[in-house]
Amino acid sequence: TQLLEQSPQFLSIQEGENLTVYCNSSSVFSSLQWYRQEPGEGPVLLVTVVTGGEVKKLKRLTFQFGDARKDSSLHITAAQPGDTGLYLCAGAGGTSYGKLTFGQGTILTVHP
Amino acid sequence: GAGVSQSPSNKVTEKGKDVELRCDPISGHTALYWYRQSLGQGLEFLIYFQGNSAPDKSGLPSDRFSAERTGGSVSTLTIQRTQQEDSAVYLCASSLIVGYLDNEQFFGPGTRLTVL
Fold first, then answer.
1. Quick check: A100 and B103 CB within 8 A?
2. Does B53 touch chain A (CB under 8 A)?
3. A17 pLDDT more than 70
4. Cβ of B55 under 8 Å from any chain A Cβ?
5. Rg (Cα) of chain A, in Å, rounded?
6. Cα–Cα–Cα angle for B22, B37, B81, nearest 5°?
7. What share of chain B is helix, strand, coil (3-state, %, to 5)?
8. Which is nearest to A56 in space by CA: A68, A69, A46, A70?
9. Of A49-63, B29-43, B63-77, the least confident
10. In chain A, which among 85-104 make CB contacts under 8 A with chain B?
């Protein structure tokens, strides 16, 4: 069974601070996705990383895929209240063709 | 709308009753997925469909859970003899194809199931 350990589970910070969310596994994934979910809605895809060592930037968000394709991180620079939400990492591939294996999620609260 | 829709949005039922949850995927998407999410937690895979076939049912928690998809479109998740531990948000997603790399899944808003 493939597992993704996501940390921290909760993050409460002030506007303007930086933060990093980690996603780790002992399994290799073909790709790693990051989703953001707001209350009462389904997750929405932010980015997919595919190549080991890949770094993708989306405005103030930076996503990295580990060289061995077993881990990933999400870094937010100068967080804003609008970044508040549940962030989920999800791995595709390996022994789990078709389905996504999700981490437990990180609940981020950014205070003005 | 063009997104994934689910119905009902909320369902309250009594322990022991059967419930049916419906998912309408994005038109043209061949793959459809069901997940379960406990409050503020990650998603637990239940089952996915490629067309009308379900290659992977490994996530269904027990034989009280079943799902079907007809016409390569609408899917129904049925829970028989509901238990309180079945209370969760049930999310449906669809994707254009099934694959390792390009597998962006589009999620519906979910059905919140409460078993009393």
1. yes
2. no
3. yes
4. yes
5. 13
6. 60
7. 5, 50, 50
8. A46
9. B29-43
10. 86, 88, 90, 92-93, 97-104
CA distance A28 to A48: 15
Nearest to A24 by CA among A96, A91, A108: A91
> Phi and psi (nearest 5°) for B71?
60, 20
Does A99 contact B56 at a Cβ distance shorter than 8 Å? yes
- C-alpha to C-alpha distance for A102 and A85, rounded to whole angstroms: 16
Pair of tokens at residue B28: 């043209």
**Do the Cβ atoms of A93 and B100 come within 8 Å?**
yes
Q: How far is CA A110 from CA A15, A90, B68, in A?
A: 6, 23, 41
- Cβ of residue A6 closer than 8 Å to a chain B Cβ: yes
Please tell me the predicted confidence (pLDDT) of residue B84: 96
Taking Cα atoms as reference points, which of A36, A44, A111 lies closest to residue A81? A111
A5-8 long-range Cβ contacts below 8 angstroms, 24+ apart: A5/A103, A5/A104, A6/A88, A6/A89, A6/A103, A6/A104, A6/A105, A6/A106, A6/B42, A7/A106, A8/A106
pLDDT of residue A100: 87
